[in-house]
Amino acid sequence: MLSRTASNLFWTGRYIERADFVARLVEATARLASLPSTYGGDPTAWTGALAAAGAAAAFAKTGAEPTDIAIAPFLTVDPASPSSIHSCLELARNNARAVRTALTREVWEALNGAWHEVERFAGPRLSRVRLDDLLETVHRAVLAFEGAAHRTMLRDDAYWFLQLGSAMERADNTARLLDVKYHLLLPRDELVGGSLDHFQWVTILRTVSANTAYRWVYRDTVKPWLVADLLIFNTQMPRSLASCYEEIDGLLDRLGKGSGRRGPAHRTASAMLLGLRNTDIDAVFASGLHEFIGRFLADNNRLGAAVAEQFLF
Fold first, then answer.
1. Taking the model in full, what pTM does it have?
2. Alpha carbon 168 to its chain's center
3. Number of continuous H segments (helices) and E segments (strands) in the chain
4. Which of 27, 147, 196, 246 is 20 to 30 Å from 265 at the Cα level?
């Protein structure tokens, strides 16, 4: 496969996954921010959403007040925002169009249809009803894309690169979400374990569709270290860091067998997976969750560079 084709497929997977994450993040943030303060409502939730999406600096450049009225459109339909759902789907569509023949008709139609559906919501004002409709549209579109890819694409390099991009982006998103909660969201005058802290951890579970999984695994009330354990180490949880890296390691192995060679990307992914397997949540909290996540994000970025060097250039 040509490196340019591999790159387009890899980034299609990443941008689709990013659009899905931003939609989940906005949905959970809107729910948290709308609660009365006595039940965990948080006026800082929207600035936390910007941080989780990596969009705080870009939003600051707009000069707008950091309110839900400004932030929700910025994260969803603003074409000038590099992290918006609109921008992510547009970039995914552009990458997919460049390698149209590597995709099945069903995959292309799902992605192309998703972009056109989101285009209908463009505009400076976004009511709560229209926001809910937009997010539901994105959820359906991403599921349609993933289902079409799973059910219609050959299990060859095209499929593996698409899935590799998705898995790497998913790991990055989960790590950033955990870090923002632990380091930024809880106001200084709120107690750890208080009502606001509890609802923020519940919101994280909702963002990654893990409420039911948490109850099944731990049979306990929501506790920060158990949420972190689920989203870092539990390989049954598809959005956990460990689950993502098991998938990444397997995908790179398949790509290595196809090309007949292994390289720095394989070594980096294997080392990260081994590190996750040899660590537990007690060790993470003893050394600091923020520090652990910082190292993970740096390593994930290093893997991205290794994948680019080995396959995409």
1. 0.90
2. 9
3. 15, 0
4. 147
**Burial code of 157-173, b = ≥16 C-beta within 10 A, e = fewer?**
bbbbbbbbbbbbbbbbb
Place of tokens 């689709």: 16
Burial class for 263, CB neighbours closer than 10 Å (0-12, 13-18, 19+): middle
Encoded tokens for 200:
């923020």
Residue 123 CB burial class (10 angstroms; 0-12, 13-18, ≥19)? exposed
Scan for tokens 């496969």, then name that residue.
Answer: 1
- Identity (one letter) of the amino acid at 166? S
Task: Please count the other Cβ atoms lying within 10 Å of the Cβ belonging to residue 38.
Answer: 8
Q: What integer pLDDT is reported at residue 186 of this predicted model?
A: 44
- What confidence score (pLDDT) does residue 188 get? 44
Per-domain residue ranges for the chain? 3-312
Task: For residue 301, give Cα distances in angstroms to 6, 108, 172, 256, 308.
Answer: 18, 28, 9, 20, 11
Q: pLDDT digits over 163-204, tens only?
A: 999 999 999 999 988 887 665 444 444 444 455 567 778 878
pLDDT < 50 regions, the chain: 39-41, 184-193
157-180 vs 195-207: helix crossing angle, rounded to 10: 170
Helix axes 241-259, 157-180, angle to 10 degrees: 160
Question: Dihedral (C-alpha) 174, 175, 180, 181: value to the nearest 10 degrees?
Answer: 70
How many residues are present in the chain? 313
Q: Which two tokens stand for residue 4?
A: 């340019």
For residue 221, what are the contacts with CB-CB under 8 A and spacing of at least 6?
A: none
Quote the pLDDT of residue 7: 96
Can you tell me the distance from the alpha carbon of 16 to that of 13, in angstroms, rounded to the nearest whole number?
5
Mind listing the pLDDT tens digit for each residue in 251-293?
Answer: 999 998 877 678 999 999 999 999 999 999 999 988 888 889 9
Task: Provide the CB-side half-sphere exposure for 142 (13 A, CA).
Answer: 24
pLDDT recorded at residue 285 = 87
